[in-house]
Write a structure and sequence with these properties.
This protein is of the alpha+beta class and about 525 residues long. It is built from twelve helices and 27 strands. Strand 1 and strand 2 form a beta hairpin. It starts with 6 loop residues before the first strand and ends in a 10-residue tail after the last strand.
Length: about 525
């Protein structure tokens, strides 16, 4: 084995917090910043002179001028102003969002200057790299299991801006399972239920382990738009109701960015307090001088959150049902992500699984980065340890991938090419034929989603073939080869090198990863 030079790392880039680990001296080491913390807030503050602050210092500056503080970065990857997610959080955000006129994507706006979420993300990634103190030869980046093709491409763009060589993307639950195996030897054939609830989403992966080094995702579930931020939201709504009772609705119509930021931070802090206590005090007097401080009990919080918990419960039921799995077949339950500490989440999972199966000794906020680093060590040929060199994993796509086609009535329909839970590194070939005499071009539209109806799924790109040879209708055909690559990203090519290919979107361009 020829060992590659340089440091190899794993990065868990989170919506709220991020973490980096490296592989050195045959072990995984989670790195800390100058403040001694191994968790870095995914916040970027841009000052009036253009200076940038990242992490805790960004949040500190943001307390004074929150309109200059950028966060919720992962939520905004490939998000459009018309999307439900933007409508949902627009009134809570302290920063200004501007729509890209060409793509419709959300961008950050400050001082008349536009910053894409990828640009802001790259600053967080650069900060994490600075902890290494050496040249980083390659990185494995983690992504939520329900990240779309668009979102995966966005994080790759951010990494490129940060000067990172991305070896591979890996789903967060899979990375956590790999890391957990470093501390707990699995028995051959054991099944893991990985529940990952971060700030912006929650993922469920059921993973089978073979010989402690082979990890196969059986099935995926979850919700890309339900996470810890939503639990913050129910407390913010509760605070607004209490404020309205005290000062009237008209006095709350135009909350300043500072007040919005303060309420968001108060909600987050209240959840942390309620994780270990029966009540938390929220200082509404800091939001409005005529308001009084209020107490929120854990029981009240759980009542406010029951709608969210019901959604999570339905996802758990669905994922167990789709593979006809029962609770007894699950050997380990891994809880990861900052919001996994919320008692009502643990209480819900105890309805399904014996508490003895719950992971006890793992660090929920570092496990994902550790698993990614283990894979980076393998890809970078940094280890002689068999648990690294023999590491194999099989991730699966979380969304159906397909094309638009016209039915016999001329109606646009969605045809699935790759079904949800298809493993990575798969290929399908579809034949395209001309439908008119001397047709000069043809186009295929590609979609991704979980719905049968075309319009409910996301258009991720179109492949256009031009300069077709002049022939009668149906005489010319071309094979279009669709591939799910090692990162779970769709790639497209054709077998006819003589016809020109135009991509109507950059989403389908092959990246060197």
């Amino acid at each position: 084995m020829s060992k590659k030079s340089g440091i190899f790392a794993g990065i868990d880039f989170g919506n709220s917090n991020s973490c980096i680990a490296i592989y050195k001296y045959e072990k995984v080491e989670v790195l800390a910043g100058a403040d001694g913390s191994r968790i870095t807030p995914s916040y970027v503050y841009i000052g009036e002179n253009g200076e940038k602050h990242v992490g805790k210092s960004a949040k500190n500056y943001g307390h004074k001028k929150p309109e200059r503080l950028f966060y919720d970065i992962k939520r905004l990857f490939a998000a459009k102003t018309s999307d439900q997610i933007c409508k949902k959080y627009k009134n809570q955000w302290t920063f200004d969002i501007k729509r890209d006129t060409e793509t419709g994507y959300c961008n950050y706006n400050i001082d008349g200057k536009i910053y894409t979420p990828e640009e802001i993300s790259s600053e967080v990634l650069k900060k994490l790299l600075s902890y290494v103190g050496e040249d980083v030869a390659g990185v494995v980046l983690t992504v939520p299991a329900f990240f779309s093709t668009e979102q995966k491409n966005k994080i790759l763009e951010a990494a490129e801006m940060a000067g990172i060589t991305v070896l591979q993307l890996i789903c967060e639950p899979t990375a956590a399972a790999i890391a957990y195996g470093m501390e707990h030897s699995y028995t051959n054939g054991e099944v893991l239920f990985v529940f990952d609830i971060g700030d912006e989403s929650f993922d469920i992966s059921i993973i089978k382990v073979v010989n402690n080094t082979n990890f196969e995702v059986i099935v995926l579930g979850g919700d890309s738009h339900l996470g810890g931020r939503d639990f913050d939201g129910v407390i913010i709504d509760w605070m607004l109701k209490k404020l309205e009772e005290k000062v009237g609705k008209n006095n709350l119509k135009k909350l300043t960015p500072i007040k919005k930021f303060l309420m968001t931070e108060m909600a987050k802090e209240a959840i942390v307090v309620l994780n270990n206590n029966e009540s938390a005090t929220l200082q509404l007097s800091e939001v409005h001088s005529d308001a009084s401080d209020v107490t929120l009990t854990r029981t009240e919080f759980e009542e406010l959150s029951k709608g969210l918990v019901l959604q999570i419960k339905e996802s758990i039921v669905q994922i167990l049902k789709c593979r006809a799995l029962n609770q007894q077949e699950i050997n380990h339950v891994l809880l990861i992500g900052g919001s996994s500490k919320i008692p009502i989440i643990t209480k819900l999972l105890k309805e399904f699984f014996d508490e003895a199966k719950f992971s006890k000794s793992c660090n929920a906020e570092e496990l994902v980065a550790m698993g990614a680093t283990r894979l980076a060590a393998k890809l970078g040929k940094q280890s002689t340890r068999s648990d690294i060199t023999d590491l194999v994993y099989k991730d699966k796509i979380s969304l159906n991938v397909g094309i638009e086609y016209a039915d016999k009535n001329g109606e646009s329909m969605f045809k699935t090419i790759f079904k949800k839970d298809t493993p990575y590194n798969q290929e399908q070939v579809i034949e395209m034929k001309t439908t008119q005499d001397n047709q000069k071009e043809c186009e295929i539209a590609l979609y991704e989603g979980l719905y049968d109806e075309l319009e409910k799924n996301t258009h991720i790109g179109s492949l256009k073939l031009i300069n077709l040879p002049p022939k009668k209708a149906g005489e010319y055909s071309v094979d279009v080869i669709l591939t799910i690559d090692k990162n779970g990203i769709l790639e497209v090519k054709t077998n006819d090198l003589n016809c020109a290919v135009q991509y109507k979107t950059q989403l389908l361009q092959k990246r060197k990863t």
